[in-house]
Design a protein that fits this description.
Blueprint lengths: L2 H9 L10 E7 L2 E7 L4 H18 L9 E6 L2 H8 L9 E3 L3 E5 L8 H21 L12 H11 L9 H8 L11 H4 L4 H32 L4 H9 L3 H13 L15
Parallel strand pairs: 2-3, 3-5
Antiparallel strand pairs: 1-2, 4-5
Helix pairs in contact: 2-4, 4-5, 4-8, 5-8, 8-9
């Protein structure tokens, strides 16, 4: 039994996983996924099954699952928070690990299958990345930074339209120490998730535009061979992680996305 599920059963908080007795096997472009729900949420299972048809091909660009994924539909947001051990994250809708995805039942937050498919593409990208980079025993030990994890997932799911503009992100950076959504991502994640996700998405886009998908593949391959993230990134991309992050910060703060590469300050 998966670690988080065992803890949930032990504490008796929220809906127990043992109640998710309805199972639906879905074969996708990236591999087999089992959708688990409570009996009364069969409609949610159907929504997810249909949404997977659109989501899986996007994720499959990175390869197939090496281990089947079990997708648990949590009946409420409270159930999701308890299962994911993330309390006070009102914006959270899903949580992924190596071969599990917790998803808040779509009927409780969206009526649009497109939104569900987008979120599933995001979460399943996490699963593929972990499986291509590690084993079930060491995937959480690779020290993969939040910007890379969330950026790769957001880029793959084509979620750029959900985040703030590059100009708005530049203004976040200019708030000063403690407001860097890459360097301070873990501290900002709960309260300023919009800035963290935006920075992650744009940073990964910056990585793809400059170094391409082969570099990302090399980073994952390096981790699969036993290296931690920073070492794998240095070998796969050709520069230190810190240097890449500094380059991205300059790109944003100097407004290089406007074309000049010079810092642009508002007129008095």
């Amino acid at each position: 039994m998966k670690r988080w599920l065992a803890v949930l059963l032990a504490c008796g908080c929220g809906t127990p996983i043992s109640a998710l007795t309805t199972r639906k096997d879905v074969m996708t472009a990236m591999g087999p996924i089992t959708v688990c729900t409570v009996p009364k949420q069969a409609a949610d299972a159907e929504t997810v099954a249909h949404a997977l048809e659109a989501a899986a091909p996007k994720v499959a660009r990175w390869g197939a699952l090496s281990t089947p994924v079990e997708l648990y539909l949590m009946p409420s947001h409270r159930d999701l928070e308890w299962a994911a051990h993330r309390h006070g994250y009102g914006w959270l809708r899903a949580w992924a690990q190596y071969d599990d995805v917790l998803l808040q039942a779509p009927s409780t937050w969206s009526t649009h299958e497109h939104d569900v498919g987008e979120l599933l593409a995001h979460e399943l990208t996490h699963c593929v990345m972990y499986q291509k980079s590690a084993t079930p025993r060491d995937w959480a030990l690779k020290a993969i930074p939040l910007w890379f994890r969330e950026g790769m997932a957001s880029w793959t799911a084509e979620q750029g339209h959900r985040w703030m503009s590059l100009e708005d992100l530049a203004r976040v950076y200019e708030e000063g120490p403690g407001a860097d959504p890459i360097a301070d991502a873990d501290a900002l994640y709960q309260e300023r998730s919009a800035a963290v996700y935006a920075a992650s998405h744009y940073a990964f886009s910056f990585l793809m535009n400059r170094y391409g998908a082969p570099a990302v593949e090399k980073v994952m391959a390096g981790m699969a061979q036993g290296e931690p993230f920073d070492a794998a990134f240095r070998e796969g991309v050709g520069l230190e992680t810190a240097r890449f992050v500094a380059e991205f910060r300059r790109y944003i703060v100097w407004r290089a996305f406007r074309g000049s590469g010079r810092s642009v300050r508002p007129q008095p």
